[in-house]
Amino acid sequence: DNILIIHGPNLNLLGVREPEVYGGATLQDINRNLSELVENTEFKLDFFQSNAESALIERIQLTMNDGTSFIIINPAAYTHTSIAMRDAIAAVKLPFIEVHLSNIYSRESFRQHSYFSDLAIGVISGLGAKGYELALKYAMTY
Ligand code: DQA
């Protein structure tokens, strides 16, 4: 079973970017932790980060042919803007969990709408890096 972890724009800056909002862990820390969780299981992880909407859409489209069975995605700022990414994830019809490090409902009003949540199996928002871990544990039992 292949699980794809997608990180949207600016998440490559985790650790240095507003750590009071997003925490001190880097993206490498988060990915390493997730990799450890699937050691000695039948699950394989694939990681993808991009700052470009087109690259994210193309990666989502690839799941039609690459054996991915589940997606964990933090669309970052595209959460609130990208109908095109929403359409891509709807097209591939894979189950997914939407993760946000911060609690988007406790922040600016423009962050309080997501183009993904109504399509997601579930949403984790505000639990920091731990949210990815919880999402992965769920995906492994799905
Ligand atoms: C985020 C929340 C978004 O509003 C923001 O644009 C991000 C990160 C989060 O993980 O809390 O880049 O998705």
TrEMBL record:
Its EC number is 4.2.1.10. GO terms for biological process: amino acid biosynthetic process; aromatic amino acid family biosynthetic process; chorismate biosynthetic process; quinate catabolic process. The keyword Cell membrane does not apply. GO terms for molecular function: 3-dehydroquinate dehydratase activity. It comes from the Bacteria. It holds the Pfam family DHquinase_II. The active site is at 22 (proton acceptor), 100 (proton donor). Keywords: Amino-acid biosynthesis, Aromatic amino acid biosynthesis, Lyase. It is an enzyme of class 4 (lyase). The record marks 17 as: Transition state stabilizer. It catalyses: 3-dehydroquinate = 3-dehydroshikimate + H2O. Substrate binds at residues 74, 80, 87, 101-102, 111. Pathway: Metabolic intermediate biosynthesis; chorismate biosynthesis; chorismate from D-erythrose 4-phosphate and phosphoenolpyruvate: step 3/7. NCBIfam families: aroQ, PRK05395.1-1, PRK05395.1-2, PRK05395.1-3, PRK05395.1-4. Catalyzes a trans-dehydration via an enolate intermediate. Belongs to the type-II 3-dehydroquinase family. Homododecamer. This is 3-dehydroquinate dehydratase. It comes from Nitrosomonas supralitoralis.
